[in-house]
Task: structure prediction
Amino acid sequence: MDFSRLPETAFVHPRGENRAAIEALLSQVATRILDYLTGAADQTPLPELQTLSTIALPEKSGDVATLMATLDTVLSTAMNPAHPGYVGHMDPLPTTASIVGDWVVAALNNNMLSVEMSPLFSRLEPLLLREIAQLFGLGDRAGGLLVSGGSLANLQALAVARNVKLGTLKTGLLTQAQPPVFFMSEAAHSSIKKAAMLLGLGTDGAIAVATNDQSQLDLPALHQAIHQAQQQGQKPFALVATAGTTVTGNIDPLVELAAIAREHDLWFHVDAAYGGALMFTEAYRDRLQGIEQADSVTFNPQKWLYVSKTCASVLFREMDQLQHHFQVAAHYMNTEDDWVKLGEISVPGTRHADVLKLWLSLQHLGQQGYRELIAANYALTTHFTAAVKARPELQLASEPEMNLVCFRGCPEWLPADQWDDWNRRLQAHLLQEARAFLSLPRYRGHNWLKVVLLNPYTTLAEIERIFAAIDQFLAIT
Result:
C-alpha cells in the first residue's frame, strides 16, 4: 500500500519504523492529560460549552498540531469530576490504574467476543467476576459478566429472569397466556422501565411500587401491587430491589424483599450499581444484608470503585443459567472446551476489555484501600448531613444510607410554589460562589439538590465553603 497520503503517525508500524514520531505524539497527549488532571482543582467543576460550530468531514489528512488543538478544546470544555467541588453525580475521578488499563486495552484492541480474539481477557473476566460474586455471597456456582453500563446489566438480568421464569428463550412472549409483569420501586433507575420496554413487556410491564418516607420500597404497597396484578390476570415473574437509589442513595429492605420473592416464586434482582461497593468493606457491608439471596445483581465498579467508564457488571447466582436460558451460538468462532464465548452469553458481541482496568485498580488499591476511601466518604457525609440539619430552612429528602445527601431549601418567607425556583437559583449560586457543582434532580415532583461525596480530595474545607455560600444565599434572598 502507498502510505504517502497518510500521516506518518496514522498507525504504529509493527516493525517500529515510525517509533520516534509515535513516541513524540503520545508524549504530547500524555503531557496534556497530566496538565489537565494535575490542574483540575484550578478549573471549574462544570465548564460552559458554547454551541459547536458546523462539523465538516475532512477530505485530507491533518497534522499533529490539528489533533492537539482538538484535544485542547476537549480538555477545556469537558465535565471535570476530578475537581474537589464536583459533588453532583456518581462520577468519580478515575484511578490511575484504570487510565493505564484503558490505554493498554485500546492499543491491543482485543475483542471480548471469544477466547481466540482475546485469549487472556476472556479468561480473566470470568475468573475475576466469580471472585466478586463470591464477595457478594452468591454461592459456589455464581459468576458474572462485564457490560457497558448499568442499563445493560439490568436488561441482561431481567432478560434471563424472563426466560427462566416464563420459558421464553425460543418462543418469546407470544405463547404467554397472561401478560408478564415485574415489580420495582418508584425510585428505581429509569433503566428498569427501559428494560421492560425492550423485553416486549412495555413500560407498564414494570409496575412501580410506592416508597416510604425513607425513599425505600414500601412493603405493604408491594403486597398490594402483587395481589392486584394477580387479580387482573397478569403473571408476575420478577422483583427488582435497589441498593443505592440514584437520587437519595437509599437501600430497599433486601431481606424482606427476598422473602417476598421466594413466597411468590419471583426472580429477585438487586440493582446495586452504586451501593454494591459496600461489599468491599467490613464496616458497612451489613447495610446490604439480603443481597446474598439475590438471583442476580447489578454492580458498577465505574462508580464507587473509581474505575474509568465504562465498567459495569451483572452477577448471577447460577452462572450456568446464562448458557441454558440466554446463550445464542456464534458458529463462526472457534469453541474452547473449558471457556465459554462471552459474546454468546452477553447482550453485545464485541466488547471492550474493561476487565483489565478493573483488575489493575483492584491490584493497585487493594480491598484495604477501598475500605479507607469509603470510610472517608461516610465521614464527610456525616458532617454534611449535620450541617443540613443545623439549618431549619433546609430539608432532607431522607436519612442518608450511603455517601449521598439529597436536600432542598424551604425558606418560610417564600410561598411554597416558589421553592423550586429558589433551589434552582441556589444551585447556580453554589457553582459561582463556592465553585461547587450540586445536581438538581426532580424528586417527588420538586427540585432537590443532590450531593455525592465521592472525590477523595473533597475535604471539610470544601463542605464549609458550600455551607458558607448557602448561608450567604439565605441572607440575600
